[in-house]
């Protein structure tokens, strides 16, 4: 079971890591071309979200892999649950229902990781 959880963690970390890197590495205008909701937010807000995603991705993997404060892994997963809970109303307001489905999926996967790693 631990191997399956590690695989799920890795995929989740990859998804959030890539999303964070996109938001942090591109100018706001390029991010807006790729992500519609970015037009409603300032550059620093987008950078904050990208940083949050990237740190969450690193937090899913590094603490347990390095055996340094492994309790941070479920904390990171819980923080990503919170991020998804905040993203859903934004997509709902914008009628981006396809994105909501992805947010809900990521929310449940992150919640599963948090639950399994708190034990």
The secondary-structure element order is HHHHH
Oligomer type: single chain
Radius of gyration from CA coordinates: 14 Å
**Share in β-strands:** under 5%
Sheet of most strands = none
How many DSSP H or I helices?
Answer: 5
**What is the 3D form?**
globular
Give the helix level as a range of percent.
Answer: over 70%
Low-confidence stretches: none
- Please tally the β strands and state the result: 0
Which secondary-structure class do the elements indicate?
A: mainly alpha
Residue-averaged pLDDT: 95
**Distance linking N and C termini:** 13 Å
Question: What does this entry look like structurally?
Answer:
- The chain has 119 residues and is mainly alpha-helical.
- 83% of the residues lie in helices and 0% in strands.
- It is built from 5 helices and no strands.
- It has helices at residues 2-25, 28-34, 43-66, 72-93, 97-118.
- The radius of gyration is 14 Å and the shape is globular.
Secondary structure topology:
Elements: H1 2-25, H2 28-34, H3 43-66, H4 72-93, H5 97-118
